[in-house]
Amino acid sequence: MFQRAVTKFGLAAHIALLAALPVALTPFLSAQWLGKTILWLTLFAVVWILLAPSIRSGEGLGMARRRVLGGIVRDPMTWFFVLAAVMMWLAKLNGGVELFYDAETTQWIIKTPPVEELMSSVPGAGFLPLATTIGVAVCVLGVRHAMGRQARTWCGLAAAFIAGCGAFALAALTFTGAEGFAGACLRNFGDAPFFGSFFIMWLFMAITCGAQAEAEGWGAARLPMAVAVGGNVTAVAFFLPPLASAIVFGVALVFLMTSLAYAARAGKGGAAARAFVMCVFGILMTALVVMMCASEEIRTAKVEQILAAEPEKEPIEDTFDEDTDPTPDEVLSRIAQQMWLTAPWSGVGIGAYNLNVPFYAEDADWRILPPKVDWPVNGYWGLLAERGITGCAIIAVGLAFLVVFWFIRAVEAFFAVRASDDHDVYFFAVQPVSWCILPAFALCCADARFSSVLRFDAVAFSIALPFALAVASFPRLKKKKNTEEK
Question: How many CA atoms lie within 13 A of 9 on its CB side?
Fold first, then answer.
């Protein structure tokens, strides 16, 4: 019994750490330290995947190891991730993009990379994308091949719990006015990035996986569920614009009702009521953190921001005309488009957007732009400018794999449920984590249009792990032998 518990939840805990800890630590660590953290967590997760995967009924540990290793080798996503990692490694090696002063021409210029046809990077900027690609690959493949049903539920809840703890820490630093975080809770459209963008998906994971755990009768999962819900509610409420927060909460409420219906149907002894109480307790945690940490000035400013019909903006310059002059968002997007047209396939280099802005901006643009420019508010143009068609295609193909697998598994689940006694309630016979992923993913894609969150590589974990859990959680047709354990 002890070995079975360790093989289930030890792997789930390590995958959860790998997926959620980089997201929680992104506001606090440099790119180099974050990349090193991801690689160390990846190493531990790989050891658990290969040596202690979940064991199916009728299997021994050795048979389970061979099954997992064979499945990973045959999985087309494995070879896609190998290709993606090689591309990121080449971009790291092709890291000669930097700003330097040419004494002969007495001008500042951008040094071109050794191989202009390949993706490139600013020195030191290519390490984190490489580490993220490897970490995401381990998360996705571990969920697909090495986890049982209960382990997947625990993984999703544990990851949401870790993200919630990070959200509480972020809120405490922001509310107390810590350097670098002051004002983060009052940003609106045009003031990106939003720290709340990291936590949209984890809010859905906290609700759905918490309800699934309650349906299984796991009393030990109740406090993690409350912390996960409370932390991610705090992040969405205070670190997204009010309109975006309202939309996220509206969709989350729909899936809360769906998850409670699933818990009432699959659980026993008031499972839905207990799950609802834990959600309410988590929201009360949010109120407690706000009352303890946030000053009266911050609370008043946030309420005024929510109630305001239009957010107040400081004038950019006395000569700025709102009717005729472009906004900073429009200027930065136009500059990003020009950069992309300069190098459409390879991009200008990972981390090189801010270096190139002075060479593409017009004199009139500096009346509008801030002195230091990081990324355009439209994250898609920033991603395309830096990584080009090649880099964006890698991301698009990876997401396409997950979406296609989701639809395939949804169809398979329909036939699996139809063959059982649950054929008349197909929607509620499937775990809610499988249904919430597409609306949550759509919200994250919409958020990226108004936030520069895509420049943070760790946000990939917030998409990849929940998507992998959603795909793997659909029920399968039962086989006579080697069926997946519960």
Answer: 15
CB 257 within 8 A of CB 234: no
Cβ atoms of 259 and 213 closer than 8 Å: no
Region class of 305: left (phi > 0), else alpha (psi between -120 and 50), else beta: alpha
Q: Which two tokens stand for residue 357?
A: 């802005």
Given a contact cutoff of 8 angstroms between Cβ atoms, the answer to whether 166 and 25 are in contact is yes
Q: CA-CA distance, 16 to 154, in Å (whole number)? A: 9
Phi, psi of 128 (to 5 degrees): -65, -45
Structure tokens at 418: 């139809």
Tally helices (H) and strands (E) across the chain: 17, 2
Q: How many CA atoms lie within 13 A of 157 on its CB side?
A: 26
Q: What is the DSSP letter of 327?
A: P
Taking phi over 0 as left and psi of -120 to 50 as alpha, with beta for the rest, 124 belongs to left
Q: Which residues does 383 contact at the CB level (< 8 Å), separation at least 6?
A: 391, 392, 395, 454, 455
DSSP class per residue in 287-307: HHHHHHHS-HHHHHHHHHHHH
DSSP letters along 43-70, please? HHHHHHHHHS----TT--HHHHHHHHHH
The residues that bridge with 350 in the sheet, in sequence order, are 121
CB atoms within 10 A of CB 263: 25
Q: How many residues in the chain?
A: 486
Measuring CA to CA, how many Å separate 269 from each of 205, 404, 409? 23, 37, 31
Host H or E run for residue 386: helix 379-418
8-state DSSP, 184: G
**CA 46, 52, 56, 61 torsion-angle sign:** positive
**pLDDT tens digits, residue range 230-271?**
989 988 888 888 888 889 999 999 989 999 988 888 877 688
> Which pLDDT score is estimated for 331?
86
Ordered by start, the domain boundaries in the chain are 2-307+375-472
Q: Distance between CA atoms of 81 and 482, rounded to whole angstroms?
A: 28
Model confidence at 483: pLDDT above 50: no
Under a CB-based contact definition with an 8 Å cutoff, are residues 217 and 151 in contact?
no
- What single DSSP character describes residue 199? G
